[in-house]
Design goal:
14% strand; 378 residues; alpha/beta; Aspartate Aminotransferase, domain 2; Aspartate Aminotransferase, domain 1; single chain; 2 domains; 12 strands; binds pyridoxal-5'-phosphate
Length: 378
């Protein structure tokens, strides 16, 4: 879609994108049309693991949102990450990863890739001048990290990757395609856990990868159906509906989270608060973003305080996911990062009193009142 910049997606435009009217379930029409069968022809719907019209309609809609030429939908965000990496990496290849990655991605890198003979090296977001990119095929990062909400300089990283002949893959889940479009700043592939903002209703697990390079997408699509990471068409149909309100949901997430971060930053019981609108400096590529999404991190110093706080909340529910319409809260040191030792937690700067809040789209004053009463109990 030409003329689509980071800030130009409006509700009307989303409605104008093809609506999902194709059949939900279609398995095989091969017998009806055997002469048209071609292996790499995605729009010939011969078998639903390979391609499906409902899935295809949603893929095209999401690719438009990401400013991409095309994309592939997967059975999960992890499926998207696995197929994307395996489509370009094989034995003896090297890839470079950000240290501060989603836990599931870390497991993939630690437990699976080395067994396939893929060499994995790491760099920290706090020191991107020393990336061991030499000889690497892929540099893999997240645009906004979990749970500390650090912003990765995608523009700079794409230059470093490309100067060294590597591709830049960006997991853009925490920003969403509404708040940030990594392909506009040089990323070669943008990945989403659709489970989070894009679906946004906590009732679907799906993943997506999008690119301006159709050949790369074709390779990733072939991995998807060969490994069997195909998405369920009914869940794809739900995403086709959910995405019509992406703009409205993101605007409300952005506003609510910004105000709650501001409120917490002035609260005496909060030792540290992290949310990008509070930072004095951010990488230039994020300067025109409409916002930074739902996730806010605050440090209440001790685990005892953190537990009292989350148990005192009435609207915010304790649950591990994020980016849905309902407000959720977790204590990373007890959940997503529970496997880390005290020393590793310290090194990662994650406090035992750290709380990750995913701010939903409820009434802002109700949310602030709830936080205030829960903090007053600690
Ligand atoms: C949730 C998440 C994933 C994994 O997505 P699933 O849909 O749960 O497989 C990957 N990356 C990030 C940043 C996530 O938050």
């Amino acid at each position: 879609m030409k003329g689509f910049s980071t800030r130009s997606i409006h509700v009307g435009e989303i409605h104008q994108l093809d609506s999902v009217t194709t059949p939900i379930f279609q398995t095989a029409n091969f017998l009806m049309n055997p002469s048209k069968y071609k292996v790499d022809e995605r729009d010939n719907y011969i078998y639903s693991r390979i391609s499906n019209p409902t899935v295809r309609a949603v893929e095209q809609k999401l690719a438009n949102l990401c400013g991409a030429q095309d994309g592939v939908l997967f059975s999960s965000g992890m499926g998207a990450i696995t197929c994307s990496l395996l489509s370009v990496l094989s034995e003896n290849d090297k890839a470079v990863f950000l240290t501060e990655l989603y836990g599931g991605t870390h497991s993939l890198i630690q437990k699976v890739l080395p067994k396939l003979g893929i060499q994995c090296e790491f760099f920290s977001i706090d020191d991107i001048s020393v990336i061991p990119v030499n000889g690497a095929k892929v540099v893999y990062v997240e645009s906004l990290t979990n749970p500390l909400l650090k912003l990765t300089d995608i523009e700079l990283l794409s230059k470093i990757a490309h100067q060294n002949g590597a591709l830049l893959f960006v997991d853009n889940t925490f920003m969403s395609p509404y708040n940030f479009r990594s392909l506009e700043f040089g990323a070669d592939l943008e990945i989403h856990s659709v489970t989070k903002y894009i679906n946004g209703h906590s009732d679907v697990i799906l993943g997506f990868a999008a690119s301006k390079d159709k050949d790369l997408i074709s390779k990733i699509w072939q991995k998807m159906y060969t490994l069997g990471f195909n998405p369920d068409p009914f869940q794809a149909y739900l995403v086709g509906r959910s995405v019509k309100t992406l703009v409205l949901r993101m605007e409300k997430h952005n506003q609510n989270a910004k105000q709650i971060a501001q409120f917490l930053s002035n609260h005496e019981k909060v030792a540290q608060i992290r949310y990008p609108t509070l930072y004095t400096e951010i990488p230039e590529c994020y300067e025109n973003c409409p916002g930074f999404g739902a996730v806010v991190y605050c440090d209440l110093v001790t685990q005892e305080n953190a537990l009292k706080f989350v148990e005192g909340l009435k609207i915010f529910k304790q649950a591990t996911s994020l980016a849905g319409v309902e407000s959720l809260v977790t204590i990373p040191s007890l959940t997503s990062h529970a496997s880390l030792t005290d020393e590793e937690l310290k090194k990662a700067n994650i406090s035992k009193g750290g709380v990750r809040i995913s701010v939903g789209i409820e009434d802002l004053q109700d949310l602030i009142d709830d936080i205030e009463q829960a903090l007053s109990e600690i």
